[in-house]
TrEMBL record:
Cellular component per GO, a single term: plasma membrane
Gene name of this polypeptide: Cpne7
Keyword Protein transport set for record: no
All residue ranges annotated as the VWFA domain in the record: 308-507
Presence of keyword Repeat: yes
Family matches, as SUPFAM superfamilies: C2 domain (Calcium/lipid-binding domain, CaLB) (SSF49562), vWA-like (SSF53300)
Annotated coiled-coil segments of the chain: none
Protein name: CPNE7 protein
InterPro entries cross-referenced by the UniProt entry: C2_dom, C2_domain_sf, C2B_Copine, Copine, Copine_C, VWF_A, vWFA_dom_sf
Residue ranges occupied by any C2 domain in the UniProt entry: 10-131, 138-265
SMART domains: C2, VWA
Family membership noted in the UniProt record: Belongs to the copine family.
Length: 557
């Protein structure tokens, strides 16, 4: 990730808009930087650092802008935004000497730094602060401005391919070295740099590399928002010569889809006033435009995707005799047990996303009537043809009714239930539609016995529209269960095959014993929106009733 010169500006990553978590785009500019060069002006580059466990870690860096004390950087920094955390950022500006390697800037001159939090930038949207040198000393009149924009889930990105023809020649002994800048004109009439192309050397009819920008970045998802496009002749000392400009909108650009092309006359207003026969300073052509929609969790939900909720309850003997008040399955009329608390906390959120409000409720690890054979995937309403209960209350009643009829036994095998839900999810996958996503909540009081089979079943399930939440009930040592939650590394099957997606979330209920039920639900369901979007993006399934990409991008969803 070495420093790029202005001719190799890193593009705005389209992946920035994929996030379900809030992601924030940061744009940086500086004014009145210190001049550290003897012959030319400073060649500034800005580094973004984030504090992690008390240490400053470099996150990303901008391009280097040659010979400029008032740079506007084209680089867009993207950071995750967590409302519940204080996220400290530090911006450091250096005069680059061009030979710094990745993560190093030892030979560069420090022009100043600024610290703030993501929250401050988001709350104010635009932060301008003085730059400080070491030991809190002001860096002259130097300031840094950071502008933030949240990347909404309802977003996409656009791929643009530009060329120009017959541009004015600004150089004496060779041809112009043109590059193109696109600015978005905001409501307050200020201009925001959206993208800067690479420089094409010695060419009056350049073809610039195709590039991608988010629709949010390009036009704030408003098709009619005005855009200003400027063509410059690059100068290594930073004094770029103005060739011409034109104004357009994303709405107009979209005429370039398919075989069509759109072109604009590149105008120099001074020449237009002075020269009687002036026609233009060249023509800029949009060769191609491709819109890529990136859908959010809400796009899928609003498109009619149902979240089907299945609960699986551990009825192994280690829970204790349900008639005994020490049992984890003891039914106290005044105080729900941990199984019921976890079931209600998670189920009450899931039920809002399921139109028929019917939930599958399964049990494992018990001997069941009539033959009292051990079963690892039985319906707790004892209806093998239909394991669904009416609403959360229906699940609670079925649970309470089944307890006196079964014998708690063992072992703690969960692979059969994962495979059972996976079979239904596999049928759903064959529809090739984003119509149903499955959440399996497993409530267990101990470490699973069939760990190898469970790992295999999870790897298989990671290719299907499903997520698994495991809540550990009681005071057992759940250390081995953390393996299933891929947070510590990638979960693999016994044969070494990795999961396609991280679909398992494990939490011990005791960590939430004294917290509100919403805290448990927030913790275990936090990953689900991301998992839903990851699955449908991987399968390239759009929402069932998506908004067409060329519809009004500004409308709220």
């Amino acid at each position: 990730r070495g420093m790029a010169t202005m001719g190799e500006v890193p593009e705005a990553s389209p992946q920035a808009s994929l996030a379900v978590l809030s992601k924030v785009e940061l744009r940086v500019s500086c004014k009145h930087l210190l001049d550290r060069d003897t012959l030319n002006k400073s060649d500034p580059c800005v580094l973004l650092l984030m504090q992690s466990q008390g240490q400053w870690m470099e996150v990303d860096r901008s391009e280097v802008i040659k010979s400029n004390l008032n740079p506007v950087f084209a680089k867009i920094f993207t950071v995750d935004y967590y409302f519940e955390e204080v996220q400290k950022l530090r911006f450091e500006v250096y005069d680059s000497h061009g030979h710094a390697g990745v993560g190093t800037h030892d030979d560069d001159d420090f022009l100043g730094g600024m610290e703030c939090t993501v929250g401050q930038i988001v709350a104010q949207k635009r932060v301008t602060k003085p730059l400080f040198l070491k030991y809190g000393k002001f860096a002259g009149k130097s300031t840094i401005t950071v502008i933030s924009e949240e990347i909404s889930g309802n977003n996409g990105y656009v791929e643009l391919s530009f060329r120009a023809k017959k541009l004015d020649d600004k150089d004496l002994f060779s041809k112009s070295d043109p590059f193109l800048e696109i600015y978005r004109i905001d409501d307050d009439r200020s201009e925001q740099l959206v993208y800067r192309t690479e420089v094409v050397k010695n060419n009056l009819s350049p073809i610039w590399e195709p590039f991608k920008v988010s629709l949010n970045s390009l036009c704030s998802c408003e098709e009619k928002r005005k855009l200003r496009c400027v063509v410059w002749d690059y100068d290594s000392r930073g004094k770029h010569d103005f060739i011409g400009e034109f104004f357009t909108t994303f709405e107009e650009m979209q005429k370039a889809m398919g075989e069509n092309k759109v072109q604009w006359e590149c105008m120099n207003p001074k020449y237009k006033l002075k020269k009687r026969n002036y026609k233009n300073s060249g023509v800029v052509v949009l060769l191609d435009l491709k819109i890529h929609r990136v859908y959010s969790f809400l796009d899928y939900i609003m498109g009619g995707c149902q979240i089907h909720f299945t609960v699986a309850i551990d009825f192994t003997a280690s829970n204790g005799d349900p008639r005994n008040s020490c049992s984890l399955h003891y039914i106290n009329p005044y105080q729900p047990n941990e199984y019921l608390k976890a079931l209600v906390a998670v189920g009450e959120i899931c039920q809002d996303y399921d139109s028929d409000k019917k939930f599958s409720a399964l049990g494992f690890g018990a001997r069941i009537p009539p033959k009292y054979e051990v079963s690892h995937d039985f319906a707790i309403n004892f209806n093998p043809d239909n394991d669904e209960c009416e609403g959360i209350q229906g699940v609670v009643e079925s649970y309470q009714n089944c307890l006196p009829k079964i014998q708690l036994y063992g072992p703690t095998n969960v692979a059969p239930i994962i495979s059972k839900v996976a079979r239904v999810a596999a049928d759903e996958e064959r529809t090739k539609e984003a119509s149903q996503y499955f959440i399996l909540l497993i409530l267990t009081d101990g470490v699973v016995t069939d760990m190898a089979d469970t790992r295999e079943a999870i790897v298989r399930a990671s290719y299907l529209p499903m997520s698994i939440i495991i809540v550990g009930v009681g005071n057992a040592d759940f250390t081995d269960m953390q393996i299933l939650d891929g947070d510590d590394g990638v979960l693999r099957s016994p044969k070494g095959e990795p999961v396609l997606r991280d679909i398992v979330q494990f939490v011990p209920f005791r960590e939430f014993k004294n917290a509100s039920p919403t805290a448990l639900a927030k913790c275990v369901l936090a990953e689900v929106p991301k998992q839903v979007v990851e699955y449908y993006s991987y399968k390239a399934f759009p929402p069932r009733c998506p908004q067409p990409p060329d519809a009004n991008l500004g409308s709220p969803q």
